[in-house]
Amino acid sequence: MLKRFLLCLLLVLGVGPAAQAEPLAADVLVRQEAAALFEAIDRYRAQGPEALEAFYGEVQQRMDAFVDYDAIAQGVMGAYFAEASADQRTRFSKNFGEALGRKYAKALLAFTFEAYEVQPPRAQRVPVGERSAVVMTLSDEKKKAYTVVYDMVRPDAAAPWRVRNVIVDGVNFGRTYRNQFASAMESRGPGALDTVIDAWLGTDETEDDG
């Protein structure tokens, strides 16, 4: 399951922190930054192991600019979000983002992709702004094809698009992480919220690579 999520995140981590004069359309952004990330991966592979820490840092920085950790973390916490304090919510969002960055940066270099295609987005108005579904198809070095749907949002037309969820070949990863969080809470019993939040950066079931 981690491999499939890597396939989708691989193509959105290329967004850089530099400001755009005007926000790009959701599909244009994904297409442009896919190419940027392929270039970054090739560059770090050519430099060798001594460049890995720099690569990890670049991946984390690009994720920070493109992924809406706060919204995703709220969804992952599910029913437990209401009982969490402001500090607990902030800590989990931070831990969740760092865990994603660490896991995916380490795994990105293990995959080779040969082709991808981004379809025109399906956009709609929502009460708090705009929402867009960007569909990408890609193939790996073994010609295996994948379908990736990016759930992207922005509060208004002047704001950049950010990822809220990803669905790969029908697997909803927001729901998957929510189930992991709920399972971790249930296995530990009442009052375990701090333990689960802190453990998200550890090696227990909240970091399951399944």
List the helices and strands and how they pair.
Elements: H1 2-9, H2 26-47, H3 52-66, H4 69-77, H5 86-108, E1 113-118, E2 122-126, E3 129-140, E4 145-154, E5 162-168, E6 171-172, H6 173-188, H7 193-199
Antiparallel strand pairs: 1-3, 2-3, 3-4, 4-5, 5-6
Helix pairs in contact: 3-5, 4-5, 4-6, 5-7
Which CATH architecture?
Roll
Mean pLDDT across residues: 80
- Helix fraction, binned, reads 40-55%
Shape: globular
The Cα radius of gyration reads 17 Å
The topology string of helices and strands comes to HHHHHEEEEEEHH
Specify the CATH class: Alpha Beta
Full CATH superfamily name: Tgt2/MlaC
End-to-end gap: 5 Å
CATH topology: Nuclear Transport Factor 2, Chain: A
| Tally of strands | 6
Low-confidence stretches: 13-20, 203-210
Strand content range = 15-25%
Q: Indicate how many domains the architecture comprises.
A: 1
- Helix tally equals 7
Biggest sheet, in brief?
Answer: 6 strands, antiparallel
Class from secondary-structure proportions: alpha+beta
